[in-house]
Amino acid sequence: MNERDLHDGLTQAEAARRLKKYGPNRLEKKNKVSPIKIFFSQFNDFIVWVLIVATAISGFMGEKADAITILIIIIMNAVLGFIQEYKTEKSLEALKELAAPTAKVIRSGVLRVINAEELVVGDLLILESGDRIPADCMLVEDSNFMADESLLTGESVGVEKSSRTKNSSIYMGTIVLTGKGKARVIQTGMKTEMGKIAGMLQSIENDRSPLKEKLTQLGKVLVILCIVICVIVTLTGIWRGQDKYQMFLLGVSLAVAAIPEGLAAIVTVALALGVSRMLKRNALVRKLPAVETLGCTSIICSDKTGTLTENKMTVKAMYFNGKIYYVDKESIPENLSLKKAFTYCNDCNFDHSGDNIAKSLFGDPTETALIKAFFKENKELKGFLDKARRVYDIPFDSDRKMMSVIMNEGSKEICYVKGAPERIINRCKYILDKGEVKLLTSDYRDKILKAVETMSFDALRCIAGAYKDTGIVKGKGLEDNLIFIGVAGIIDPPRKEVKDAVLKCKMAGIRAVMITGDHKNTAFAIGKELNICKNQSEVITGEELDKLSDKQLSSKVDAVSIFARVSPHHKLRIVKAFKSKNKIVAMTGDGVNDAPAVKEADIGISMGISGTDVTKEASSMILLDDNFATIVSAVEEGRIIYDNIRKFIRYLLSCNLGEVLTMFLASLFYLDTPLLPIQILLVNLATDGLPAIALGVDPPDSDIMSGKPRPKNESIFARGLSEKIIVRGSLIGVCTVLAFIAGRYYGYDLTTCRTLALSTLIMSQLIHVFECRSERHSIFEIKIFTNPYLVGAVAISITMLLCVLYVPFMQSVFHTAGLNLGQWGIVIFFSGIIALINSLYLYFK
Ligand code: ATP
User: Fold this and answer.
1) What is the pLDDT of residues 322-350, one digit of tens each?
2) Which residue, by CA, sits nearest to atom 6 of ligand 1?
3) Nearest 5°: CA angle at 517, between 513 and 518?
4) Beta-carbon count within 10 A of 330 CB
5) From the CB of residue 85, how many other CB atoms can be counted at a distance below 10 Å?
6) What positions does the domain Cation-transporting P-type ATPase N-terminal occupy (predicted)?
7) Residues carrying CATH 2.70.150.10, the chain
8) From the CA of 518, how far away is ligand 1's center (Å)?
9) Which pTM does this prediction carry?
10) Which are the contacts of 655, defined by CB distance < 8 A and separation ≥ 6?
């Protein structure tokens, strides 16, 4: 492999050619969803089969028109179910695509982030700690490279890898534990070691939703209840001498209509639709159940840099030779040693072909800011970099909070170190003061710490630089006996939208907590600006945290708003402490070391831009824009979705209760059957399908973010929902029966009376669907037209009813009569009266 290859990688054209020839770097997918399978699974229901068989029998016995219509209704129901389920599967699939891994490659000399599927043999990969290796490769350049190959070998200890030893092969699916490297792709797709044992890797987990499980349980109870009632209705009918077949068909139809078979499925639809809405707001949900939990979030622990702040860094001040220089106020005297320390001990990439230095630097914003502070032009930087060659490095890591390099500057080797000031000072024995190396006395030390304190109170992020030119060893001991040079103070402004988001959290009873590796004062200054905290007493440092036992931490944690100078391993303790106080914790993370905390949190959140693959895989949600405000939007969506699920559960169950009760009451009071089987099925079709789905996408109540989060194990029927369902459902049933009796009272024939009952039942459900839109507000307060889907669905259902009532051919199929104005009066009265009373009650309350 020649130098040029190592530098420029493949050309785009060559990569495209290889991709075409050898195919994508993809493990074959198992069991894709098939639409046909989904369609037929709709009939995978015992009760539906009983209905089909019963219908077939009644068809042979002469009721042909009835039989055909029932079959058509069954098929239409299946189509509705199919649409729901297919949409769900499709959106889940789309989700998987989105969460697909990416890879950093160099092509035509430029660093690009591509979809890992586009990798081809020969590509030059850039790997960093936390990356999941996207193909089988050979390392060509590396430092401190360790891989976790447990996925392949089961061994969970890291394996050292190096291009200089025999152990230079790295494998798809394994993880870079530490260090970084460049690697050449040697196998892709099914030809990789991973491909040989394909199927082990699953990027998205379709965990079972607890809510869905609970509803499936509830569904089973309801099925039994419904069947019992249907049997009673059927038997009373037969006992009273009605036609056995008709009564049997009636019972089965009632079972089909009343059993809320869609309940659990519709929860998935609502969750999946919510997921796609969250995606529009830049939150990518990886685990469906997380959507439910999001709504209960009571604590959001967020990283500072990049999530609360913009991650757009600029050096604002420098401290050296005993003085703080402010960039905006004065010109800063040249300090060559500091310039070298910050430029050589720096991992950002540099595209030397362009002119504009701001556009030519890529990498960690802290590091690019340092370079921009010293260089205005590309040429100048290139000349400076060409004067020295890096021979060794220890990369930055947030636990150590420092980084070091050994540079060969022609005649000799010099070590440069940069990192958090306290850490650096602890390793310094000398100080460079106006060009002279002196012993670092406590006087000097105090002065430095004072300067750091001053800068950090101005919200500046401080980085110190140091060096040494003797006693240079590769490895342990390299960072001892350093010579202190100076400190840079970098500003990273808070994101604008965060302040509002924090306020929104407060109103919603959610606490925002900052977790940062930065200095206590810097963290406090930013926290104060964002209204995350008021007093210094709310800040605790990693050092203080280490002194607390888990129990002490847990008793203190409620009073802490900022954890400063913490390391990733502290995060796990913090999550556990909050959880021990029964809080539902959302926790962000980006680096590899954050993964355990992200996994432990109720909602693990990773960063789409700066996050590592390992953390993304451990998380249940990815922030595509790394923004804190997005977390709050996601929590809001979580609440909306949960609310909507409650809405349609309320609707479906009270309607079904109304249907069952109508038939039950009629048989109890020896009335004629108020509805024929075919009419019951029509009610089911007209009211259960579309309106319920439309409720699932209902816009939120305006006060959705102004209450406390709900407890995690709260029943879906809590806060009076079950009472609402029972009362309203019973009233629907009673009113329908009353409409039927009223018809009898006025002496109408049986067909007209049934038509009255049918219309009342349908109309009261269609009115009720609007009531279900809010638990706190009456029909008069909610704006009817804010959910156009619902208005559309209701319009379709009403049209359906009108057709059945007035189209002659339909009249004969559904055994109905066209109602006159007076009869409509009865319908409107009985379907509207309850809603009116209920709304008046809510309105005046
Ligand atoms: P957050 O957890 O909010 O993202 P952070 O990004 O500020 O916090 P770290 O990146 O761990 O946390 O940085 C902690 C400290 O380490 C910084 O205050 C700074 O002093 C030092 N530091 C940050 N980046 C570098 C770097 N590239 N090289 C050397 N030191 C660094």
Assistant:
1) 999 999 999 899 999 999 999 999 988 87
2) 305
3) 95
4) 9
5) 22
6) 2-63
7) 1-187
8) 6
9) 0.82
10) 687, 688, 729, 732, 765, 768
